[in-house]
């Protein structure tokens, strides 16, 4: 008989193996190594106390991996990853894990619950809707082949060791998603390089890239300095600073016309889309 409890006493290796099994047939390949898995958990603020496992005896057959932080001024839980191993699907396990998670949130003072789900994964989206989640935003994910010899470096760039986040915020057209947030970047700061363009001794644009995966969580330019090749210069510099053959930008708010125009002009292509969904708890 299945039982549900937190993951506080479950080893990371066991969670990792269950994660690989549950995502073995996922639309987006999730074949990460154990160190990559641990880095993902650290970046997204994983907390085993508010995470939930479904167990058949002592075997972990389903999970909701949750992180906890302050998000938009509220105590927030974030679904790092939800999965059920193939042999145990279509038994209502995800809904029961969500119910258990909500009970745990009540004890922890969590005010809202945030997650992302592929727009094509209608069955999962329907489960979340039935459990009270509403769509907050739609995100676009894109990628392109690495091009370390791009020639569109029109402006001189410089590395940034200590990001001025208050300044960088003023460049944003939209709030980054949880995994792309300032807190997530700072959680694994050693994994990222930051590049900027400075004009008249003021930074007018910046970008951040993951050194090994080629993921760009943030890239933005001061509104007064757009359409002058600054974003393209930053992108060209970032592409030289990763060992990955692919460059990815995940969770672009589809309402940002400027960002959509930028990625199209740069040569990115759309891979998948996601919904950001929120459940208000208080």
TrEMBL record:
Q: Which InterPro entries match?
A: Acyl_CoA_acyltransferase, Bact_Acetyltransf, GNAT_dom
Instruction: Report whether Acyltransferase shows up as a keyword of the record.
Output: yes
Q: Which GO terms describe its molecular function?
A: acyltransferase activity, transferring groups other than amino-acyl groups
UniProt feature coiled coil, ranges: none
Q: Which UniProt keywords apply?
A: Acyltransferase, Transferase
Domain named N-acetyltransferase: residues: 2-159, 151-282
Q: Does the keyword Transferase apply?
A: yes
Instruction: Cite the PANTHER family for this sequence.
Output: AMINOALKYLPHOSPHONATE N-ACETYLTRANSFERASE-RELATED-RELATED
Name under which the protein is recorded: Acetyltransferase (GNAT) family protein
